[in-house]
Fold:
Amino acid sequence: MLARPIFVVGTMRSGSTLLRLILDAHPHISISEETGFMGGLVAAKRIPNWMHGEGWYERLGWSEEEFDARLREFYSGLFERHARAEGKQRWGDKTPMHSEHMPEMARIFPDAVFVAIVRHPGAVVHSLVRKFHYAVADAVTYWKSTNEEILRRGMELGNDRFVLLRYEDLVERPEETLRELVDFLDEPWSDDLLRHQDVQAAKGAPRVAAGSTRPRDAITTDLADRWATALAPADRELLVTSAGPLACFLGYDPSRPGVPGPLVPPGSGTWRRLLSGGVLAERQQGSGAVPLTGDAVPVVVPEMSPAELAKRLQKAERALARVHSSRAVRWSRAARQVQRRVSGVPGELRAAASQVVRGGRGRGPAG
Structure:
């Protein structure tokens, strides 16, 4: 069994791929490209579209705890083999949609730690609109609801299992931020974290990773504030009214770019650039508390290929055609047509016709 797993969570376009590449450059840590494995794990526990799908394994005499242990053994084995093949002592995963699975991940992997990354809402919204054709309002709602979910779960996980960092700190103050992060992860410092591009190039990483991130590019601030001149005034106003309180809670000015202030004032904690679950809970007790009670908005995975989208659409159309061609549907349509035709017939005859139609529904047409 390798050391405690590391789960990187955050919204899409938050800089999570850059963080993955940096952590993967550490001599002890292996974090592969996105896997989305929790989709398979959840489906294994709750078979969709079946009335007995919830807890199906109990029919075989398995308790949920036993089944979780078997799932943990299976998925840990997959990641551990990958880590060992790279000569690493610890495995992790980075998949943005896993933000909505944090409670189940924490339960099934009780020794896992979570590293959340957040980015200015303006930057995330601009990137979602430009890259994935989101509507601005939908992108703002996604940023707000997903980060509320992450923070709410982070408070539940506490100081030992959850920490949050900001993309802007990662690119503006990389060494200070990363030294705090490896302290939380209980790993030794390595200069490889600051030259991840050389490490990734040496191991043959692709030139472009998830989200169009280039593994062989050094840490840079070039992309941090591009959104400021790209969003229309009305869109920036929406940032303030909808995402403003949460953005301020995280140290951002929602109306303009710039380096955010320290999450924790000097002298009040171990770190200045990271926010642990316990410190987050303390901040929620102060005057700047924000509501974290909303439901996370389901994530639409934009990376699905056009071919897969077309295949799913064809499948749905075929299923709909089968429904429309079924005997029950055909007979129902015929019955409605009869009813419409007799609507102008005198009352006694119309009642008799309706009786015939009702009587025939249970038998269907002869032959």
Observations:
- The CA atoms of residues 197 and 218 lie 6 Å apart.
- The beta strands are 3-10, 29-31, 90-94, 113-118, 162-166, 275-276.
- Residues 64-85 form the longest helix (22 residues).
- The mean pLDDT is 84.
